[in-house]
């Protein structure tokens, strides 16, 4: 006990975890009824020991002044007996109630433990039954899952087809709106990983609808200039149908393209208007209006203005098409990395490469 008190004294102060007075307070709080009982018994015994030789009347007459009265009260054995009895009764009653609470708490803990064990047993039985049911249903679930995945791929394939048709119809509407003929073409590009991919193309000439080259660098060609500088116009290029060598030399020198790439161009356009498709200040892709006719811009005085007006009026629509294409493309690539090629492979190629 003395050692414990010394340890608590050393642990006092600002850096201590629990000081002496905290320990004393906690100890008294737990042992209060026992202390009452012991103190009451001691007072009763002391009062009884001195009560026989105590003359209370003389002691009271001798009590003159406040300090004397206090001394009378403190040394009166009869008062000690009375307070001893009261403290002993209070301590005994408190000990009785405390033991009842402890017993109730113990019984409650035992009941809770029993309930937990019973619940645990029931849970194991229920879980075992569920596992058995799920195992029995496993084959059917796998079959249903395979069917659902196949249906999902079919729906997504159809969604890709509809998305491509939507872009195609929008470009067709633009061609009709601008009175384009069989010498003209409109192409929509989607930027993906520093490359521009064809996601939509329309011309009244079916030959020009085909794609000879599937992707272009953002740092190359007319579409690369439009991508970097928001718009671009070409109206001095030689006629590719009239002089192929002169056309090739012009394109290679001005746009830094390889001769082999120029020769593979199915449509050797010499007149271009290209715009970067933007949304909220961010580049999304490029749209190109082109023609193989050297007199394309002279067909109508207001043709350039009409093309620009059309583009800026419908830029938001084409930006949405490109964003949807990028989202579908990312989903397809993620699924292909997880599961390998699927029935959507060819549609994916059509979406990203034209």
Describe the structure.
With 354 residues, this protein is an alpha+beta fold. It has two domains: 31-121; 178-353, GAF domain (Beta-Lactamase, 2-Layer Sandwich), CATH 3.30.450.40. The protein is 65% helix and 12% strand. The protein has eleven helices and six strands. The chain has helices spanning 2-10, 20-30, 32-51, 56-62, 66-75, 77-177, 221-229, 244-255, 259-263, 303-339, 345-353, and strands at 184-192, 195-202, 215-217, 231-234, 271-279, 282-291. Strands 3-2-1-6-5-4 form a six-stranded antiparallel sheet. Helix 3 (32-51) runs antiparallel to helix 6 (77-177), helix 6 crosses helix 10 (303-339) and helix 6 crosses helix 11. The chain is elongated. It starts with a helix and ends with a helix.
Query: Could you say which overall geometry the principal axes of the C-alpha atoms support?
Result: elongated
Mean pLDDT: 81
Q: What proportion of the residues form beta strands (DSSP E)? A: 5-15%
How many individual helices? Answer: 11
Helix content: 55-70%
Intertermini distance: 91 Å
How much is the radius of gyration in Å? Answer: 49 Å
Q: Regarding CATH, which class of the largest domain? A: Alpha Beta
| Count of distinct strands | 6
Order of helices and strands: HHHHHHEEEHEHHEEHH
Short overview:
It contains 11 helices and 6 strands.
């Amino acid at each position: 006990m003395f050692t414990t008190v010394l340890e608590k004294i050393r642990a006092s102060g600002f850096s201590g975890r629990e000081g002496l007075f905290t320990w004393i307070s906690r100890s008294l709080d737990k042992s209060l009824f026992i202390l009452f009982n012991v103190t009451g018994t001691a007072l009763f015994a002391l009062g009884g020991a001195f009560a026989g030789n105590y003359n209370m009347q003389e002691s009271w007459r001798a009590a003159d002044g406040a300090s004397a009265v206090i001394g009378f009260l403190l040394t009166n054995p009869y008062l000690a007996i009375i307070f001893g009895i009261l403290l002993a009764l209070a301590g005994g009653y408190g000990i009785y109630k405390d033991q009842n609470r402890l017993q109730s708490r113990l019984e409650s803990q035992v009941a809770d433990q029993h309930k937990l064990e019973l619940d645990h047993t029931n849970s194991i039985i229920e879980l075992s039954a569920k596992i058995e049911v799920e195992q029995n249903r496993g084959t059917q679930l796998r079959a249903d899952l395979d069917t659902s995945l196949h249906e999902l791929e079919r729906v997504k394939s159809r969604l890709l087809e509809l998305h491509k048709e939507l872009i195609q119809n929008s470009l067709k509407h633009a061609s009709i709106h601008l009175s384009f003929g069989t010498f003209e073409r409109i192409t929509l590009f989607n930027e993906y990983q520093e490359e521009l991919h064809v996601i939509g193309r329309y011309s009244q000439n079916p030959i020009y609808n085909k794609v000879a080259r599937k992707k272009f660098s953002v740092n190359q060609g007319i579409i690369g200039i439009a991508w970097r500088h928001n718009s671009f116009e070409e109206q001095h290029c030689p006629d590719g149908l009239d002089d192929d060598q002169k056309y090739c030399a012009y394109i290679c020198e001005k746009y830094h393209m390889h001769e082999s790439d120029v020769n593979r161009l199915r449509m050797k356009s010499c007149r271009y208007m290209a715009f970067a498709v933007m949304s909220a200040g961010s580049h999304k892709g490029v749209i190109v209006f082109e023609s193989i006719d050297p007199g394309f811009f002279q067909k109508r005085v207001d043709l350039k203005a009409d093309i620009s007006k059309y583009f800026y009026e419908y830029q938001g629509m084409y930006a949405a098409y490109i964003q949807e294409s990028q989202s579908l493309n990312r989903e397809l690539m993620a699924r292909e990395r997880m599961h390998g090629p699927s029935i959507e492979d060819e549609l994916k190629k059509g979406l990203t490469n034209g």
